[in-house]
Amino acid sequence: MPTRHDWTLAEVRALHDLPLLELTYRAQTVHRESFGDNAVQLCSLLSVKTGGCPEDCGYCPQAARHHTGVKADKLMPVSEVLTSAKEAKTAGATRFCMGAAWREVKDGPQFEQVLDMVRGVRAMGLEACCTLGMLSDSQAKRLKEAGLSAYNHNLDTSEEHYGEIISTRTYDDRLRTLKSVREAGIHVCSGGIIGMGESIDDRCELLITLANQPEHPESVPINALVPVKGTPLAEQPPVSSIEMVRMIAVARIMMPGAMVRLSAGRMQMNQEAQLLCMMAGANSLFFGEKLLTTGNPEYQADMALLQQAGVRALEPEASR
Ligand code: SAM
Ligand code: DTB
Ligand code: SF4
User: Fold this and answer.
1) What torsion do the CA atoms of 42, 228, 191, 96 make, to the nearest 10 degrees?
2) Does the CB atom of residue 278 touch ligand 3 within 6 A?
3) Which atom of ligand 3 is nearest to the CA of 60?
């Protein structure tokens, strides 16, 4: 499967709008060529620094200016983070993701603390991913030296729609950080959210921006908006599962080698819809009862779903 970096809106939109069974068939075909079977990577997510964020992302319960009831906490101690990582590993996770409600990383003791978290998580044999906001080149290099496997930094939506959702930073700021991450030799994790009032073309444009970079991101999280009371997007109509399936399928076809992650929004989906997402090429889930601040399906229910459907969880050595 040649890796393409020249997708156009017309062809991506045509893919997106295919009859659903044709689209999922094509996505599953691409998926099997890249991955062989339908194993799913289990990832664990921990908010290491919650709330009080100065940014104004319209979807986010952690922005200080939105009154959502999320209380602002200090950066968690390294030992507590590592205890949580150990539990995640015992429960079957092969990747541990740490999120901080920061606009950007500042050099100093807090960054050193995060570097210790990364070293500790890596020492357990888990992949370590962080999402800490904007980064400089030198900070990316230091994260790489600490062993960071991947950095999550979502473009969230199309460049055109971005300004409707966030005003405190630009799309170019986002792209600049992704470049620093890539140049430091860290895997890029970048995706977006659907259900924020964007058009279908906006969704296609987001995928085009991701895929037409010089290299595809190794990891593409697809989130459905979790509407949170107190945020400007609280009253958005819910995303239908079929729209999630379409987005995942198109991401899979455009970026055949990426891990496509069925991320936020599973609480609003039934088990069959989640399986359809896996048919369409999603090969990763966040498990555990909480994402960063919002709910996620029960661990037991997820395990039962995977078992019932005979979906294998990726073993540590097979993950990347
Ligand atoms: N502060 C850092 C940043 O924005 O890059 C890292 C943490 S931020 C919470 C990570 C990602 O979570 C965001 O880029 C967004 O895609 C996703 N997210 C936040 N709130 C969400 C919501 N209500 N529904 C779906 N995804 C959400
Ligand atoms: C991503 O794309 N989704 C995850 C992870 N990257 C960091 C976060 C989802 C957050 C959902 C809202 C919350 O729980 O606060
Ligand atoms: Fe802050 Fe990240 Fe939430 Fe935006 S998405 S308000 S930067 S925590």
Assistant:
1) -30
2) no
3) 3
Q: Which of 144, 171, 151 is nearest to 57 (CA)?
A: 171
The catalytic residues are 53, 57, 60, 97, 129, 189, 261
Q: Which residue has the tokens 């630009």?
A: 170
Q: According to the model, what pLDDT value does residue 320 have?
A: 45
- pLDDT lower than 50: segments of the chain: 318-320
Q: Is the CB of 165 under 6 A from ligand 3?
A: no
Question: 0.90 exceeded by the pTM?
Answer: yes
- pLDDT for the residue numbered 38: 80
Structure tokens at 178: 């992704």
The predicted pLDDT at position 317 comes to 60
Query: Any residues with Cβ below 6 Å from ligand 2, and which?
Result: 45, 61, 97, 99, 131, 152, 154, 191, 221, 223, 226, 263-264, 291-294
Q: Give the per-residue pLDDT at 192.
A: 98
Give me the residue label for tokens 């895997």: 187
- The count of C-alpha atoms lying within 13 angstroms of the C-alpha of 284, restricted to the half-sphere facing its C-beta, is 27
Q: Give DSSP secondary structure letters for 235-301.
A: TPPPPPHHHHHHHHHHHHHHSTTSEEEE-TTGGGS-HHHHHHHHHTT--EEEESSBSSSSB---HHH
Work out which ligand 3 atom sits closest to the CA atom of 100: 8
Protein residue closest via CA to atom 23 of ligand 1: 226
pLDDT of residue 235: 96
Contact 234, 228 (CB under 8 A): yes
